[in-house]
Amino acid sequence: MSRHIDLALIGGTGLYRFPGLEAAERHAVDTPYGHPSDSVVVGRLGGKRVAFLARHGESHTIPPHRVNYRANVWALHHLGARRVIGVNAVGGIRADMGPRVVALPDQIIDYTSERLTSFCDVAGAEVKHIDFSEPYTAALRKDLLAAATRVGVAVVDGGCYGATQGPRLETRAEIARMRRDGCDLVGMTGMPEAALARELELEYACIALVANWAAGCGDEAEISLPEIFANLEAATAAVPRIVTAMLD
Ligand code: HPA
What we know:
Shape: globular
CATH class: Alpha Beta
Distance between the termini: 27 Å
Bound molecules: hypoxanthine
EC number: 2.4.2.1
Binding site for substrate: 188, 212-214
Keywords: Glycosyltransferase, Purine salvage, Transferase
Number of strands: 11
Strand content: 15-25%
Binding site for phosphate: 13, 55-56, 189
Radius of gyration: 17 Å
Helix content: 25-40%
Domain Nucleoside phosphorylase: 7-246
């Protein structure tokens, strides 16, 4: 059933469709793990076949802890994708990861709980212990970085993504602990997506868009949602520029 797809994108908060996808078709994929968050849109971008899936659904109805990560990743693989980019809204912890920064993390710490984290946990499945020392594919990160540089989009190369359960934001104490642990960014959707991609031997990298300072990292007493959305909208504009340049 699958034809080659040059690149697949999983859009996070603020990215519900991919601008410029031509002659797009919608694929409602049924998977052994249930339904993906929405149909997968497959179209052409700069002469290449690109797939797009909205992680929270196109009208953002699925919270981070309810996303069917397994169905999403499986559907993209099934349609022929071998390279996947996850776009994730995050809070910034490290001093150079302030609002509107675009970062390409290179490490993850997983603080999530009660999510279905593996394709191996169904009866009869082969048990796989993937190597996850480097959770993101180095070659894909390098391509993203080179593309960003070519089009003049500033990105922070590297950083540790701390994945929290959500949907609530974190306490200051939780963020202080995450900082001590070595986290530079905090988000709710980076895991188990990255690990599931590795189980299916997909190349996978993350474009993290900083929406706000994480709790206690900025001057604000509280994190304001309108500000999160304004920052995200500004940072999201970088994504099609980087991706289009990468496909050139
Ligand atoms: N914490 C967790 N996830 C997030 C945040 C945050 O501060 N901002 C955007 N996604």
